[in-house]
Design goal:
- With 301 residues, the chain is mainly beta.
- Helices cover 9% and strands 30% of the residues.
- It has three helices and 36 strands.
- Strand 18 and strand 19 form a beta hairpin.
- The two termini are 38 Å apart.
């Protein structure tokens, strides 16, 4: 557990955009850790899930003195309530600001970066990375053993985890007059928006003649494969071991469950869910849940 002493006033200042209401005696009050429910203590910053039916009782029973709550929790003797719109979101922001490790910007001496690469400010490049003539936005973190090809452009504050390969040639072949396969040219690009996360050992191929596109705020877990010419929208969640074959269109806010697959050239509508292990072989309308192999409609969200 990481400890750092932070005053309630500092927390309120940090969350100023949340219009925090402080209930209780906050002067000379501080927190110094975040913890799960089984390990809270008096100086933990606790939070109450607004969806809980007994949140008042949970707050009253918490060992913590300072608690993030919504507006339905009533004042509690000897506790300081920080009333916000979304306690969990606020907890996450506080955790990232005060407790999460932040890599030091710079290029590790074992990394190989092409002189023509364009790196923004405060970029972190980890050990044994190889970066071609790519464009990498401000504040991006690239962990160890990552390969980024010439054709890659990524936005600000992206996070590329260990062993990822971005912009490699896609798996595209044609047959000659003798029936022998030869490579179709893979001369497109990989374009990524802001705050995209790419998991460890995930591979995202560049386009063949067009581009592979990953929208801002999309999060891709470990061990995934995104083939060439996919167009993926914003705020898409692609969980572990997902395979996305070439040429799909995935709209905003889609969720692809672990081990699911897209066969290629299908359109997944906005906000749809593809279930665990499901295989999408045809278009999936917006805001529907599809499961199975082949995937079939289960319900509306």
């Amino acid at each position: 557990m990481k400890y750092r002493k932070i005053s309630v006033q500092d927390i309120v200042t940090f969350l100023r955009a949340e219009n925090v209401q402080v209930i209780g005696k906050a002067s000379n009050c501080y927190i110094d850790n975040l913890a799960d429910v089984a390990h809270t203590n008096e100086t933990t910053l606790d939070w109450i899930n607004p969806a809980k039916p007994n949140k008042q009782a949970i707050a009253e029973g918490s060992k913590a003195k300072v608690i993030l709550v919504d507006r339905e929790v009533l004042p509690i003797k000897d506790k300081v309530l920080l009333v916000v719109g979304n306690p969990k979101v606020c907890l996450a922001r506080i955790g990232n600001e005060y407790f999460a490790d932040k890599p030091t910007p710079g290029i590790h001496p074992t990394a190989i970066v092409d002189p023509q690469a364009k790196l923004g400010s405060d970029v972190c490049v980890g050990p044994h990375c190889v970066i071609g003539k790519a464009v990498i936005g401000d504040g991006t973190v690239i962990e160890s053993h990552v390969r980024i090809y010439d054709c890659v452009t990524m936005g600000k504050n992206c996070h590329i985890k260990d062993g990822a390969i971005l912009g490699g040639a896609g798996f595209g072949f044609e047959k000659d007059e003798h029936g022998n396969r030869f490579r179709f040219p893979q001369i497109g690009s990989l374009i990524m928006g802001d705050e995209v996360e790419v998991g460890g050992n995930t591979c995202i191929d560049r386009g063949a003649l067009s581009d592979t596109i990953i929208g801002s705020h999309t999060k891709i877990n470990n061990l995934c494969h995104i083939a060439h010419n996919n167009v993926i929208g914003e705020n898409v969640e692609i969980t572990g071991c997902v395979n996305v074959s070439g040429g799909n269109i995935i709209d905003d806010n889609v969720w692809l469950a672990p081990n699911s697959s897209l066969v290629g050239y299908v359109h997944i509508g906005e906000g749809a869910i593809l279930g665990m292990g499901a295989v999408a072989v045809k278009d999936i309308p917006a805001h529907e849940v599809w499961v199975g192999n082949p995937a079939k409609h289960l319900k509306k969200k």
